[in-house]
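Late entry, evening session. Most of the bench is empty. Finally got around to the prediction I had been postponing all week. Sequence below, unchanged from the version circulated by S.P.
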Amino acid sequence: MKEQQVRVNVRTPWDSDVEAFLAAVRERVNFDSMMVGVFNAKRPNLDEVMVCHNMPEDTVRQWIETGFSDDEVLKDCMRVGSVSAESSRTGWLDRTGALPKWLSYNLISSCAVQPGCWFAITGRSASPFTDQDTHSLTLMLRTWESRFNRPKEPDMCRLMVGHDDRLIYTDPQGEQTLLDCRITVGQIMDELRATMAQRWPDFEDRVLHDVALELSGKPWWIRFRRQRAVNDKMAVYWYIEMRPLESDDLATVGVVPDERIARAVGYIHDNYNKSPNLNTVAGCVQISPFHFHRLFSKQVGVTPKQYVLQKQIQMAKWMLRSSNAPISNIAKETGFASHGHFTSTFRRFVGISPTEYRQNNSPF
């Protein structure tokens, strides 16, 4: 599924495009290697690393497992926020000589209700890090933390979940929303894993997917990616965004009796912007159109055509709320052949025009 760029492009470490993120950092500070994440200072884990660039993976594992506890530079950083030093003075055990000569540690302790500390460890060999370099790295780290903690959409929850389904980090508003709605991380992950296994049996890392699920009696739109910065199953983490759905937005569909129908729902979510017709969706799961229409309607609760239109309008509503993109662009991005067709369909589903909807719901 193509990820929609709905805002001014600010690169963050949880983005799927790691190279673009690193290029944005390099515009401000020259470096050879970098590790960024949110770790539990009492006991870091591999899945708390969001970015690991040019750091020897065995060395990263060693530092996470034992080296951090004896790292005097890290202890200094936890007291003052940023420290740079020769790597030989740190807790990193470099048996191969691949670690850069100089390391800059930057750390921000987050809110008191969560144990996570935002950190960046940046390395280079050509020269020590200057005060300006460490200050720039600290400012970038604060920007990433602030952006995660303060989603621009007022009803959005943002989570990082570890390989073992523990909550690594969430924005404060999202944490309160989950508490209010009595939704647990285990519940989210159980539903996601079961639905994902049916819809995307060949699920790949760093590919954005989305589902509409009912959790604790309420409909939610959930976008998610599985990511890992180190090639290790213990390094897997999930980046998740949750937004409440209105009751008439999109039919919530979890696990269904027929895996072919599940894959068809996944296909629609990944390809709504192509406005797939009945023959196309039925063909992707190798069922005759007539038989597919009957099975899909029974198991999903609406016809394939209705579901495609629901998905297109749901995405259009989100884009209208969360961006200032021209309506003609949104029409094209959601698979409509013309601005006029989009407007008439939107009015039929929502009751008002796209312009009126944006005026009533957009912060822009």
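Two things to note before I forget:
The radius of gyration is 23 Å.
Residues 258-364 form a domain with the Arc Repressor Mutant, subunit A fold (CATH 1.10.10.60).
Will write this up properly tomorrow.
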